Amino acid sequence: MRLVVQGPSLPQHDLTELSRLFGDTPFTSLTSTAAVLAVSITQQAAVSDWCTPRQLDHAFVPDELTLSQLGLAVMDMDSTLITIECIDEIADMCGLKPQISAITESAMRGELDFAESLRRRVALLAGLDASALQRVLDERLQLSPGTLDWIAACKQHGIRTMVVSGGFDFFADRVKQLAGLDYAHANQLEIIDGKLTGQLLGAIVDAQAKADLLETLRLQLGLTQKQVVAIGDGANDLKMMAAAGAGVAYRAKPLVQQQASFALNHTGLDGLIHLFSPA
């Protein structure tokens, strides 16, 4: 296996100090902020104790888990591929952000069923002019740091990419275009006479739907589970992450970090490139 260490800053003297846990074997630098070391033992507790106060991400990654072996990357959208929660920003347009954000946070922590939380939040938007969606897209939607680098690496290695979101297709389709993704699935808001009705159209893309969409595409592409990576940040992503060979928690809630294969808290999504780079 290999130990990948990365963060906003990674001085060489820090790497030298960390390498003492592994017999002074030197790290190989991947970039100025990421390095990798082939290891035979994990030293998980010691490495975690060393990295945490330095705001460094670390992961012990199986040797076979590399970009060249992956075939599909499935990603959440809100607070993962993009920096915002779209429904919270829509709510801000009509003075309802505190109420809706509270429901969002509860669902993300796994305290509230996602489908029920989504219905409650969407119902609060009834009567809102649909132009608010375009305003959120134009004024507030931004890709997360490192998104384009990560997707470019996927394309370079022939990895298909899909966003599956409990958010809305109005935004997911735009994110698909901006990032150059292969597939996008999300919920559809009902709009009549230019206003949101407070209802959704079709089946809700919830936790189980995310996992099912991953599994369906995996089978269509003829891939094994080990060839799939899923990235998310909330409780609604856990089933999707469990259906993949590797689940990555990206700046995620504690519950998600506990159940993920790996966690990125201090890097952008380009940290995924380093995570799956061989030693």
From TrEMBL:
An example GO BP is: L-serine biosynthetic process
Q: Which reaction does it catalyse?
A: O-phospho-D-serine + H2O = D-serine + phosphate; O-phospho-L-serine + H2O = L-serine + phosphate
**UniProt-listed InterPro entries:** HAD-like_SerB, HAD-like_sf, HAD_sf, PSP
What are the positions of the active site? 76, 78
Which GO terms of the cellular component aspect does the record hold? Answer: cytoplasm
State any single GO MF term: magnesium ion binding
Q: Give the E.C. number(s).
A: 3.1.3.3
Q: Does the keyword Glycoprotein apply?
A: no
Hydrolase keyword on record: yes
Cite the SUPFAM superfamilies for this sequence.
HAD-like
One Pfam family in the UniProt entry: HAD
Q: Give the enzyme class.
A: hydrolase
Q: In which pathway does it act?
A: Amino-acid biosynthesis; L-serine biosynthesis; L-serine from 3-phospho-D-glycerate: step 3/3
Which cofactors? Mg(2+)
Keywords of the record: Amino-acid biosynthesis, Hydrolase, Magnesium, Metal-binding, Serine biosynthesis
Family of the protein in this entry: Belongs to the HAD-like hydrolase superfamily. SerB family.
Q: Which PANTHER family match?
A: PHOSPHOSERINE PHOSPHATASE
UniProt protein name = Phosphoserine phosphatase
Q: Which species expresses this protein natively? A: Pseudomethylobacillus aquaticus
Q: Which gene encodes it?
A: serB
